[in-house]
Amino acid sequence: MSVINASIVRKIAKLACIAVTEEEVTAMVPELNAILGWGEQLAAINTDGVEPLTSVIAQSQRLREDEVTVPDIRDALLANAPEAEHGFFTVPKVIE
Amino acid sequence: MLALLWKSVPDLPASRKNGGKMEKYILEGATGSWEIVVGLEVHAQVISKSKLFSGAATAFGAEPNSQVSLIDAAMPGMLPVVNRECIRQAVRTGIAIGAVINRVSKFDRKNYFYADLPQGYQISQLYHPIVGEGSLLIDVDGEEREIGIERIHVEQDAGKLMHDQHPTKSYIDLNRAGIALMEIVSKPDIRSPAEAGAYLRKLRAILRYVGSCDGNMEEGSMRADVNVSVRKAGEPFGTRCEIKNVNSVRFVQAAIEYEARRQIEVIEDGGKIIQETRLFDHDKGETRSLRSKEDAHDYRYFPDPDLLPLELPESFIDECRESLPELPDAKRQRYITHLNLTPYTASVITADHETAAWFEAMLEYFKEPDAKIATAAANWLTSELFGALKKLGRDITDSPVSPKQGAELIALVADGTLSGSLAKQVFEIMLETGQNPADIAEERGLKQTSDTGAIEEVINKILADNQDKVEQYRSGKDKLFGFFVGQTMRAMAGKANPAVVNELLKKLLAA
């Protein structure tokens, strides 16, 4: 079942902030359809009455205690930033 | 934000508690009467020491980026682990609004790109929130109404952007990124700006009683998105607009009124309301469109693969329930039925938990506070103390007078040591000096006297000095009684027990 067309590829690329050329769009249409088609094989299986599987090992969400365990690591974090000033990350001005 | 929920809610009569008795809020347009439909999405920052998914601290006002973990900064390979306390607070809040607590809830990713969101997605709960339907009771001009709550879900807060520090750059502080929020979504049951205000105040009171959020709108720990639409009476819901991030009760009310009038004008001019996000400019008192980018609302939610479903054991929910304090509605009812307070006074005292705690601390100094003591204490608290605090620009939490001192003052009036007017004088001195009322009364000789001998002596002198008035009184001029009371009180510097004065005057004038 072919559901992905060129305009959908352009839209999701834009939403994901990925620049794509027209050649890439053309190439991705069949690729994405193939991936979706592969996944869709699962739809052939009757899952009536089967609980959704959320984990392959039987376990539930672990909760941690409310404790401050992280020290101030600002310098290490900012060292990875493309730009930082006065203890802040900086980006080109974004105003709504 | 939750268009699907908004639409699915059945219409409700404007006033189901009072059989339509409450006066409706109606806006008159050129083509007839319009009613407004409002729903509120309140973001309430959860009180916890560490963040929702990381062990970074949450304290307000820390150095920028000093409370950021590798998870909050979205370093690759980091995995979120849920903070038990944040879940506990959401469940306690849910129980406090009588809501369904979902034994299983799930986390989803809401995807969008913005500089304050390092992950590129916010972890939220779209499909399976932790708290389902509940409600709260509001009071507008003495009329009670129930406002439905659709859900409460927990999610991460974003970082903070500063645009005014640099000409071409925005500064980012991620201290707030990852702090737990509860998003509390009302049903579109609100029909006037006053109801919206009452809803917010009530919700804030409950959050503070519960201790799950400090409710501080000025610091941004509670903020509201306001959904507004208009319709002719009896018609289906109109198209709504969402006004984002309004940060005071007053602004919420002003934004609703402005937005409703704007929508009526657009429709009556033959236009159509476009569903959009708007901003409230409180300087100009108007809302305006946030020109949002195309596709901005395509969040592509999907279940967060890093987080398993959250399953709550019954024991956890029971513990949450048992940890709740007495809530405002129950407390108010108890004050009315057991302490005999008027509904109005009971509402004023229970409106915030600090006042209620102060009042109860005061009552603790009485062995068995009867209705008379409780009423005296309540009236003194809401008139004398509130008035003094207002003058001093303080609130109940930094009152210069303690509950114990307040109780002593009430006790001195109750046992006849102080009259009402002497109590006022003593209270003035308490405010200035912080001294205990009994000491003040003792030191400054402000005690009321019930010494009949002394009072009788004074009265006899006054009667002797005012023979003419005594004659007039005895020949039927009853009004002169007040004159004799005034003269006696003045002669005794206000310290005579008024009841004794009345009694003695009656006796001596009759003689």
From TrEMBL, chain A:
One of its GO terms (molecular function) is glutaminyl-tRNA synthase (glutamine-hydrolyzing) activity. It catalyses: L-glutamyl-tRNA(Gln) + L-glutamine + ATP + H2O = L-glutaminyl-tRNA(Gln) + L-glutamate + ADP + phosphate + H(+); L-aspartyl-tRNA(Asn) + L-glutamine + ATP + H2O = L-asparaginyl-tRNA(Asn) + L-glutamate + ADP + phosphate + 2 H(+). Its EC number is 6.3.5.-. It comes from the Bacteria. GO terms for biological process: glutaminyl-tRNAGln biosynthesis via transamidation; regulation of translational fidelity; translation. Keywords: ATP-binding, Ligase, Nucleotide-binding, Protein biosynthesis, Transferase. Pfam families: GatC. InterPro entries: Asp/Glu-ADT_sf_sub_c, GatC. Belongs to the GatC family. Heterotrimer of A, B and C subunits. Allows the formation of correctly charged Asn-tRNA(Asn) or Gln-tRNA(Gln) through the transamidation of misacylated Asp-tRNA(Asn) or Glu-tRNA(Gln) in organisms which lack either or both of asparaginyl-tRNA or glutaminyl-tRNA synthetases. The reaction takes place in the presence of glutamine and ATP through an activated phospho-Asp-tRNA(Asn) or phospho-Glu-tRNA(Gln). This is Aspartyl/glutamyl-tRNA(Asn/Gln) amidotransferase subunit C. The gene is gatC.
UniProtKB/TrEMBL annotation, chain B:
GO terms for molecular function: asparaginyl-tRNA synthase (glutamine-hydrolyzing) activity; ATP binding; glutaminyl-tRNA synthase (glutamine-hydrolyzing) activity; transferase activity. InterPro entries: Asn/Gln-tRNA_amidoTrfase_suB/E (IPR017959), Asn/Gln-tRNA_Trfase_suB/E_cat (IPR006075), Asn/Gln_amidotransferase (IPR018027), Asn/Gln_tRNA_amidoTrase-B-like (IPR003789), GatB (IPR004413), GatB_C_1 (IPR042114), GatB_Yqey_C_2 (IPR023168), Gln-tRNA_amidoTrfase_suB_CS (IPR017958). It comes from the Bacteria. Its EC number is 6.3.5.-. One of its GO terms (biological process) is glutaminyl-tRNAGln biosynthesis via transamidation. Belongs to the GatB/GatE family. GatB subfamily. Heterotrimer of A, B and C subunits. This is Aspartyl/glutamyl-tRNA(Asn/Gln) amidotransferase subunit B. It comes from Zymomonas mobilis.
